[in-house]
Design a protein that fits this description.
heterodimer, A: mainly alpha, Butyryl-CoA Dehydrogenase, subunit A, domain 3, 3-stranded antiparallel beta sheet, B: alpha+beta, two-stranded antiparallel ribbon
């Protein structure tokens, strides 16, 4: 399909994911860097959805299980992400409570919601509006790493608070689950193919029936 | 330094990575960017003094990393015990206290990935300044770009600040030299990665190879 804007895929040209070189997809491998060429990321919807389901499954235990266990003068207390945030809030450290709430609770949730919407748009179930959804995708990729903050906090606390009988902190399973959520949502965002949004838009403009399967590489 | 060379073999094309619109890859003057005619996303940009800046900032980041690992990050005084935190300590503590995966994640995201990115940029861009290609430069450049999204230096720094506030009530905590050096690593890494456009780097490598 050729519109007023020629698309690389319509000319049989693929841009290399690694080095950006545009070459005919028929030759299979990028002539410059040797990476596999494909018009669109392979199985992007399936991969994104699969990683998202795995991330959602881990999201619940990551907030229910303790991220660290504090043993202070013989008293054992289990800290979850939410209880840590509430402690900050109660002691009046509002900015830091908001940072933790945003990084640990809001961003992973918003990422999964945003990617679900993007996948729905890319398969033609929701109207694709690339200008707005593109910004959404950009934000999803940009914010992803920041959720790791709580994991790093656990690491720092555990290594500093080995004070024998006075206070000891050990990491909990919740931290592991949460690290899994962050890594899986980052991978899911990387697997998503934003060019599919424009493909759907062009199909709508050409008044073609939406085609839910991406072009094979 | 020589300007961005055009690789041999006729006109080159650039496809927008966002909307896949095909453009002829024309030369843009230093300090300007080529944007997609359809969606406005930056296709490629010609950074001034790209190779020199990428090499210099990476070298600075690498030297600061040595400082980071030689000095404590935080110093903590509690119950008449003084403890020092270094980056390696944090990872080792997690590995020892029953969370080896998390420990290795810290090693990977705050030590290995920044090292690969800055080391890779020096290895590729350094010889390119003299029009030469280091052996295996294509593989190194590939891995450098693959590592980029996983660089979490700035996230770790924010983590240090949050821990500091968490610990402030229970103990006396001070910033160490390592913390400031790590902040320097963060700035240098950001400058090094932004110094050279991907397309320019690969075009230069292709010209140096031929």
């Amino acid at each position: 399909m050729k519109g007023p804007w020629p698309k690389a895929a319509a000319c049989g040209l693929a841009s290399c994911d690694t080095c950006g070189r545009v070459a005919p997809v028929a030759i299979g491998r990028c002539p410059r860097c040797g990476s596999t060429l494909h018009l669109r990321k392979p199985d992007s919807i399936q991969r994104t959805v699969a990683l998202m389901i795995a991330a959602t499954a881990l999201y619940i235990p990551s907030h229910l299980l303790p991220i660290m266990t504090v043993v202070e003068m013989g008293d054992v207390s289990h800290n979850t992400i939410i209880s840590g945030m509430l402690t900050f809030w109660r002691t009046g450290a509002y900015p830091i409570a908001i940072v933790i709430f945003t990084a640990s609770i809001l961003i992973p949730f918003l990422k999964i919601a945003a990617l679900s919407w993007l996948c729905a748009a890319a398969t033609g179930r929701v109207h694709p509006s690339p200008a707005m959804l593109g910004k959404l995708y950009w934000f999803t990729e940009l914010l992803g790493r920041w959720s790791m903050i709580d994991i790093f906090v656990v690491g720092i606390m555990v290594s500093l608070m080995q004070l024998g009988n006075y206070m000891t902190i050990t990491p909990g399973l919740g931290a592991l689950a949460f690290a899994g959520v962050v890594v899986l949502t980052m991978l899911a965002a990387m697997c998503f193919e934003p060019r599919m949004l424009w493909d759907r838009l062009d199909e709508l403009a050409a008044d073609l029936p939406p085609n839910p399967t991406p072009p094979k590489s | 330094m020589s300007p961005w060379p055009k690789p041999p073999g006729g006109p080159r094309f650039a496809a927008c990575h966002f909307c896949d619109t095909l453009h002829e890859a024309t030369h843009v003057s230093e300090g300007t960017a080529a944007r997609c005619v359809r969606c406005g996303v930056v296709l490629y940009q010609n950074r001034p003094a790209s190779l020199v800046r990428a090499t210099a900032f990476s070298l600075a980041a690498l030297m600061l990393m040595v400082v980071v690992h030689s000095f404590p990050f935080l110093t903590l005084d509690a119950a008449s015990i003084r403890r020092y935190l270094t980056l390696v300590n944090a990872a080792v503590a997690l590995i020892r206290e029953g969370s080896p995966l998390l420990g290795w994640a810290i090693v990977l995201f705050t030590m290995v990935v920044p090292l690969v990115i800055s080391g890779g940029l020096i290895y590729v861009c350094g010889p390119l300044m003299f029009g030469r290609l280091a052996p295996g430069a294509f593989q190194v450049a590939k891995w450098t770009y693959r590592c980029e999204p996983w660089n979490m230096v700035e996230v770790f720094l924010l983590g240090v600040l949050v821990s500091l506030l968490k610990l402030a009530k229970m103990a006396d905590v001070h910033f160490g030299t390592g913390f400031w050096a790590f902040a320097g690593v963060m700035l240098c890494m950001a400058a090094a990665v932004a110094a050279i456009d991907r397309d320019e780097l690969w075009d230069r490598m292709e010209v140096a190879k031929s």
